[in-house]
Design brief:
Distance between the termini: 22 Å
Oligomer: single chain
Number of strands: 5
Shape: globular
């Protein structure tokens, strides 16, 4: 069985045009990610700043989302996020490969 890790990915709250994504848009992404990885943990909105390849500063609100999945699955989720939110770039990072999942019974 492929090794799973706990990952975090940053999901944009607003489009590149500055319009807030409707809640339904986020729910559709959640559903697709659950289909890939089985679940998501959605954290409170965070503020971020980054400079694109043309030197333009972006200040935006992002939603950190934690996902327990394989490296292949996080690759699929990154690609999904790029397309679903029409982003120039998406950041995801491994939080831990030392994750314990204990099931009752």
């Amino acid at each position: 069985m492929p090794k799973k890790s706990l990952w975090e990915i940053l999901v944009p709250k607003y489009s590149n045009e500055g319009k807030e994504f409707p809640l339904r848009h986020h729910h559709l992404w959640d559903e697709k990610v659950r289909h890939i990885a089985g679940g998501v943990t959605i954290l409170k909105t965070a503020k971020g700043q980054w400079i694109n390849t043309k030197g333009k500063l972006f200040a935006e609100k992002m939603i950190p989302v934690r996902i327990y999945c394989t490296e292949k699955e996080i690759g699929q989720i990154i690609q999904l996020t790029l397309e679903h939110y029409n982003q120039e770039a998406v950041m995801a990072y491994e939080l831990s490969s030392n994750v314990k999942v204990v099931k009752r019974g």
